[in-house]
Structure to design on (1011 residues):
């Protein structure tokens, strides 16, 4: 081992002192030969014989020298250094070629690197926890469904106690709570979380302590940990905050800790405060139907050596042995264990696939373009290589030299590309929807730099290898004697150039078609018929939690008061209360229909259940299909009524009239009579079909509000002048009531389509760059083709051909190249869009219009790009051409 | 190890009259230097010829490959001196590490030779 290392060092030393020792070996060999010759002379040979015998006995001296040189240092390094020197010389000799090639590479690598930067920031960066790959999310799901991911709290306690696969487990619920700080009511997204949450995530508070396990118990849970942001903003970074009490709407809490600035909770939206889970564990574990509560998120850390799959299997077994009373047990429930990272990125895999595909396409275009340039560089390089070959350079050696040149070009382009990516961040930050996590900043980190470097290496191989092998292959004598202008070589080269140009057209069509589909998909998602009219609607939310409003009556009184005031604000055409689209979750609530029994152990139908004000549907422009609307006269003292949506009526009362039937949510409630059917409104996400829904007048509701409930205000004046007025009115009714998210309904819809919007923007960028590169490629290919046909064109002109005919001749040639590319491109686009069809929403993968538009756009651009070479061809002076040929 | 029988294909000079196991040559060169002290390449070739009997044909150039290998491993060192024909020449001598290595190699070689000898003898008895 030590010797091996010594040899390496000796050879590295050899890299530097190689020259002198080589001369020394020459001397050594000369002395040796002389001594041998003397010996043979002494044996009586003639001097001629002696010299020959000596040479014979010594062996082939030049081969020996080669072998010694190879062994003395690392010859590959030496030749690389030599090639680098040559490459830099080449840059100096051909600055225009170098500039053009490097600019194309910089454009391409810059574009893909910038966009990779976005993908990196939004999708790829690891969760900010130590060993985040060991973190999983655990929940109970309906079999065969991805929705309704919740867990019963006692099940969580049992999981925690009985599993063998997790080193620790923590549960949490997100709760909207109001914090009173400095006389101001702040609406906060807070957590009720197990004491184990911070240890599971591998984090400690910056100040103070984490929760004690004992504080998880109900009654001992009045301690709080603040986020860094809340600590700075609400308490000015007060160092004496620990031990102070704060007022939340559900009680007084003692601050025991502040989290570090870099920490964020594993939630989609930022959370600013955390209190313990606060469950009565003994009572929960009795599993009495009245005490069993729900936890929404369970996060666990895998023990070393356990995989996510293994944990899933174990949890399934565990779940089936839980002592759940038959009443609560549902055979359709199974346990799901997923990596925390997947829980966050979810359905983005296909998006990533499409974007990476587009990246590959752009890089291919770049390669094709640079290969164009390399092939179109005329005969000078070819002759140079022929001379090198004639002087004894091996094929491998020439290939290596050309590859090193390509590599230097690529690295130059990559360096410029990184600079472009750096500068384009500001532009991209403007385009990327800010609601996406990680999109606030687009860091150029090692991954991004590595990506740029990898792009450079890949492009080097792609654009450099072909021409390099081609050049190395030429027979030296042919190229030298035929003056490098052999007809066959030229034809061969033209074919290659045409193929390259067609290839670029094909790739560009694939890119454009993908972008077309994405754009349509985004457009359809965002501007589909949502069942309501969004313009001029401003929305706002308030906190109607149990803690603030102990009874439905207090909620109703608050809403009555507030709606009355809002109606009278100048500029408000109408104010209502209801559900704010587009919503996120799925309906999860069961219900009863008078006179119907759901069979046991089957999945019961579910429907969204919402409280609305009488004016809600009118303000939102939701049509009434049958019956009557809710009226102001529907109050707690009159007959309980309900509206249902069309989906509900169709799926639960097929072939009959829903009106007159009675429904209820809880067994202890009075029946509500269905008095009307309204149009469907999407409330379970834009990409999902409308779900059955039941609407009740808020004045008859047992509990008003919940997530997604809020005010809708129809106004022509917009958000800005109204926001302050809404806050003022709310404060007059309830001074401690925060107002959340005053924004237009359109803005909410924009937020909900942020991801497809981003994809459309990114693919749009790729499409444009693709179009540009394809046009550039065709342009340079046509120039080369025109140049190689100078003679033919000259003769045509001399024989009386019109310049117009020449232009048409060249454009026809260009059209031929484009058509071949277009056919290939369309085929590829169809095949690819079939592969990634789940990525596009509501769009048929083989949309003929998209393909047609992309093709036409490209053809027109291509013809425009060929026009300059064509015009040049038409202006050839025939006499000059014929003279020089 | 000295006798790695084929280190690298390209190392053997083409057209050598007898295939000499590379490791064996290295061992012989090292042995010569330990036995006779400082020698130049020609001297080493003569020494090997002397002890190598008639059957042993050597492309003398290969000695220099062996010398380079040994030198890179740190088992021999070299200095310039004057040869018998009054020319500047490089004289090689074994280092301390080289002597130790030779002892180790000799022992191993003997053991292997004994073993092979025994096995061949066994074959005769059957």
């Amino acid at each position: 081992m030590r010797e091996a290392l010594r040899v390496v060092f000796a050879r590295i030393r050899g890299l530097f002192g190689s020259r002198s020792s080589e001369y020394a070996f020459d001397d050594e060999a000369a002395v040796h030969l002389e001594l041998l010759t003397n010996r043979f002379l002494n044996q009586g040979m003639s001097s001629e014989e002696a010299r020959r015998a000596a040479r014979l006995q010594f062996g082939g001296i030049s081969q020996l020298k080669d072998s010694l040189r190879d062994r003395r240092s690392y010859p590959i390094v030496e030749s690389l250094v030599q090639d680098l020197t040559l490459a830099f010389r080449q840059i100096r000799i051909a600055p225009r070629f170098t500039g053009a090639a490097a600019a194309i590479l910089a454009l391409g690598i810059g574009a893909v690197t910038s966009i990779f930067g976005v993908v990196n920031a939004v999708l790829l960066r690891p969760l900010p926890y130590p060993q985040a790959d060991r973190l999983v999310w655990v929940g109970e799901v309906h079999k065969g469904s991805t929705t309704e991911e919740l867990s019963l709290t006692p099940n969580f306690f049992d999981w925690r106690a009985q599993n063998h696969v997790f080193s620790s487990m923590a549960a949490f619920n997100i709760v909207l709570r109001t914090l009173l700080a400095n006389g101001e009511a702040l609406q906060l997204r807070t957590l009720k979380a197990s004491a184990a949450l911070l240890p599971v995530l591998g984090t400690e508070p910056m100040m103070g302590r984490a929760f004690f396990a004992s504080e998880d118990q109900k009654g001992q849970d009045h301690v709080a940990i603040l986020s860094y942001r809340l600590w700075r903003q609400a308490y000015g970074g007060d160092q004496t905050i620990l031990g102070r009490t704060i007022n939340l709407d559900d009680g007084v809490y003692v601050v025991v800790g502040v989290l570090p600035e870099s920490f964020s909770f594993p939630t989609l939206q930022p959370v600013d405060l955390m209190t313990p889970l606060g469950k009565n564990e003994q009572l929960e574990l009795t599993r009495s139907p009245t005490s069993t509560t729900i936890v929404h998120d369970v996060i666990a850390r895998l023990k070393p050596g356990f995989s996510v799959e293994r944990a899933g299997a174990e949890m399934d077994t565990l779940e089936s042995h839980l002592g759940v009373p038959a009443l609560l047990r549902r055979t359709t429930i199974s346990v799901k264990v997923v990596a925390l990272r997947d829980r966050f990125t979810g359905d983005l895999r296909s998006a990533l696939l499409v974007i990476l595909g587009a990246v590959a396409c752009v890089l291919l275009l770049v390669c094709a373009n640079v290969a164009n340039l390399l092939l179109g560089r005329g005969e000078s390089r070819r002759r140079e290589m022929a001379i090198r070959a004639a002087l004894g350079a091996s094929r491998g050696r020439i290939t290596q030299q050309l590859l090193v040149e390509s590599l230097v070009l690529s690295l130059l382009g990559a360096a410029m590309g990184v600079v472009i990516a750096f500068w384009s961040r500001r532009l991209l930050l403007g385009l990327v929807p800010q609601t996406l996590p990680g999109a606030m900043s687009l860091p150029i980190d090692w991954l991004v730099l590595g990506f740029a470097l990898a792009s450079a290496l890949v492009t080097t191989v792609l654009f450099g290898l072909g021409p390099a092998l081609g050049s190395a292959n030429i027979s030296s004598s042919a190229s030298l004697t035929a003056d490098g202008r052999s007809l066959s070589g030229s034809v061969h080269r033209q074919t290659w150039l045409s193929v390259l140009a067609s290839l670029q057209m094909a790739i560009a069509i694939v890119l454009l078609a993908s972008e077309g589909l994405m754009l349509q998909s985004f457009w359809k998602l965002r501007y589909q018929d949502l069942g309501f009219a969004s313009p001029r609607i401003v929305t706002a939310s308030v906190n109607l939690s149990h803690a603030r409003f102990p009874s439905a009556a207090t909620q109703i009184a608050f809403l009555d008061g507030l709606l009355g005031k809002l109606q009278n604000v100048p500029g408000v055409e109408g104010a209502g209360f209801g559900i704010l689209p587009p919503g996120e979750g799925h309906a999860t609530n069961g219900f009863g229909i008078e006179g119907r029994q759901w069979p046991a152990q089957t999945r019961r139908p579910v429907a969204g259940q919402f409280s609305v004000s009488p004016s809600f549907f009118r303000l939102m422009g939701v049509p009434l299909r049958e019956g009557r609307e809710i009226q102001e006269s529907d109050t707690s003292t009159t007959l309980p009524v309900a509206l249902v949506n069309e989906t509900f009526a169709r799926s639960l009362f097929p072939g009959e009239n829903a009106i007159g039937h009675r429904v209820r949510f809880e067994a202890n409630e009075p029946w509500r009579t269905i008095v009307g059917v309204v149009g469907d409104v999407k409330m379970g996400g834009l990409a999902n079909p409308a779900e059955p829904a039941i609407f009740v007048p808020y004045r008859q509701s047992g509990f008003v509000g919940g997530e997604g409930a809020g005010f809708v205000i129809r106004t022509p004046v917009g958000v800005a002048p109204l926001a302050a007025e809404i806050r003022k009115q709310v404060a007059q009714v309830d001074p401690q009531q925060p107002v959340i998210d005053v924004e237009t309904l359109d803005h909410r819809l924009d937020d909900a389509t942020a991801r497809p919007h981003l994809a459309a923007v990114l693919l749009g960028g790729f499409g444009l760059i693709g179009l540009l590169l394809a046009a550039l490629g065709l342009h340079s290919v046509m120039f080369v083709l025109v140049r190689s046909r100078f003679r033919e064109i000259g003769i045509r002109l001399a024989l009386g051909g019109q310049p117009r005919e020449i232009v048409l001749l060249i454009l026809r040639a260009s059209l031929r190249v484009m058509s071949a590319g277009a056919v290939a491109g369309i085929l590829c686009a169809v095949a690819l869009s079939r592969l990634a069809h789940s990525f596009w929403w509501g769009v048929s993968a083989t949309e003929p219009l998209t393909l047609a538009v992309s093709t036409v756009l490209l053809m027109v651009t291509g013809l425009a790009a060929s026009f300059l070479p064509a015009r040049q061809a038409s202006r050839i002076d025939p006499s000059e051409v014929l003279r020089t040929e | 190890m000295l006798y790695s029988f084929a280190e690298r294909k390209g190392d053997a000079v083409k057209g050598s009259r007898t295939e000499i196991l590379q490791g064996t040559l290295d061992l012989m060169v090292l042995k010569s230097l330990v036995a006779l002290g400082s020698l130049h390449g020609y001297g080493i070739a003569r020494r090997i010829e002397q002890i190598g009997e008639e059957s042993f044909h050597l492309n003398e150039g290969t000695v220099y490959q062996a010398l380079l290998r040994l030198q890179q491993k740190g088992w021999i060192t070299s200095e310039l001196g004057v040869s018998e024909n009054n020319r500047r020449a490089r004289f090689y001598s074994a280092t301390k590490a080289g002597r130790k290595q030779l002892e180790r190699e000799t022992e191993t070689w003997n053991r292997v030779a004994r073993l092979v000898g025994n096995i061949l003898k066994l074959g005769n008895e059957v």
User: Anything to note?
Assistant: DSSP finds four helices and two strands in chain B. The interface with chain A takes residues 10-11, 13-16, 40-42, 45, 58-62, 64-65, 68-69, 71-74, 83-85, 87-90 of chain B (CB under 8 Å). Helices of chain B lie at 22-36, 41-51, 62-72, 96-125. The mean pLDDT of chain B is 78.
